[in-house]
Amino acid sequence: MLQPFWHGISGGNFRQRAVAKLTVINSLLGHPVLQSLHVKVGDKAELTKAFTQNDVVTFSDLTGDANPLHLNEDFAKKSRFGRTIVHGVLINGLISAVLGTKMPGQGCVFLSQEIRFPAPLYTGEEVVAAAEVKRLKGSIAHISVSCKVKESGKTVMEGMVKVMVPGS
Fold it and tell me: Can you tell me the distance from the alpha carbon of 168 to that of 166, in angstroms, rounded to the nearest whole number?
């Protein structure tokens, strides 16, 4: 029954195919799972997390990034950081979580990013990942992002990302 419909969306642009697939999923489930996300300039969202050394080891196991700066205290003590540090990409994952779960929310697609890591994040430090919509251009939101240590205010990641907002 769905064959002709699915066949009809195999071509065309990505956004049209994604919206069409979501429409089918919504109709099959009998209720809207994903609605249009309405974002505006100035919208903000954040989440807070403290990474454990176990989180860092798990990330290393999953990705194969076994850099001793993250895993070996003796090695890291001799570095400019003085102890092991959290992977930058793991910190950046918090931004993905903010964007996909809070703002813009479900169904947004991460398109690009330009980020920097001005200071290290150590395990146990509580970090606040924040995002703010700075500009909208069609279905693309330009969002300022940062991760700051809650206690000290130290910035451990900052930059700009672009996401496609569904239904906008």
Answer: 6
